[in-house]
What does this fold into?
Amino acid sequence: MRISPRFFSLKSSPHFLSLPLLYHNTTKPFSLSSSAMESESTCILVLAGKSAADKELANYMKASNIPKLPDIRDVSLLLHEESLNEESFRINSYMNSLSTTCFGRFLIWSPRLPSTHDVVSKNFEELPVGSVCVADVQYKGRGRSMNVWESPKGCLMFSFTIQMEDGRIVPLVQYVVSLAMTEAINDVCTKDGVPYLDVRIKWPNDLYLDGLKVGGILCTSTYRSKKFNVSAGFKPLEELYYKTWLHSGQRVIVEEKNDDKDHGRQSMVTIQGLTSSGYLLAIGDDNQMCELHPDGNSFDFFKGLIRRKLA
It folds into this structure.
């Protein structure tokens, strides 16, 4: 199972102090001409790796003109060593802070992209598992139900690749990524001695701070063969996830649609947690356990939910 999770628009705020660790706090313009930066037919991608092998891969990909973006006429590839030192994303700081054995060790950075998701999803076969793409500005980001997100400077936007064995747990990836973001923010606050930020998870894919949405996760997947590289689970993280999310004990009105009528019967349920397939587990006032599914883009926590009874 090939998955391209994307974390988009973690908005910068006066309280969120981790971004300056990776971004230059400067008003100097990037050295490219403004016309090149603003044109939707041109794009610059900077390739970087942590280890010698990762850097050698970057050299190979540049020589092979990889990655490609079908919708961009002119894609310029640069190695990190060839790029100027004025880039707003601090690649050296990022690499020095990285402690993973797989994720993020091969980096693609761009000052301006239509979508980081397009870079990793359209070049999945050529990229190593765990590759990450970061953009300073994103002007055609993807949301739910084909929504488009425009993200200006000051947002942290990235996409990465992962492979899984068990397709049944693919819906859980977005929960793991959500939890990873909240834990990373808490870790930065602790290490830097800054006030704790109570970032919470709104099911299924949003991050909230003080009642406002500050980020979201989008996962897409494609099935290409019967053999996969990585197996992942979610069970060990459930308890920690429930401590972070917003919904334990929340009362929700569910509308059960009737094919013969425009509106179905409404019922009240109480959210208990997640089902094994990653949907909401709830119990009705009749003590019937049920699974809640989002109903298209109208979904919020007071409408747009479909109830399926569980045996």
Summary: Helices lie at 34-38, 52-63, 91-97, 116-121, 173-192, 238-244. The mean pLDDT is 78. The first strand starts at residue 2 and ends at 11.
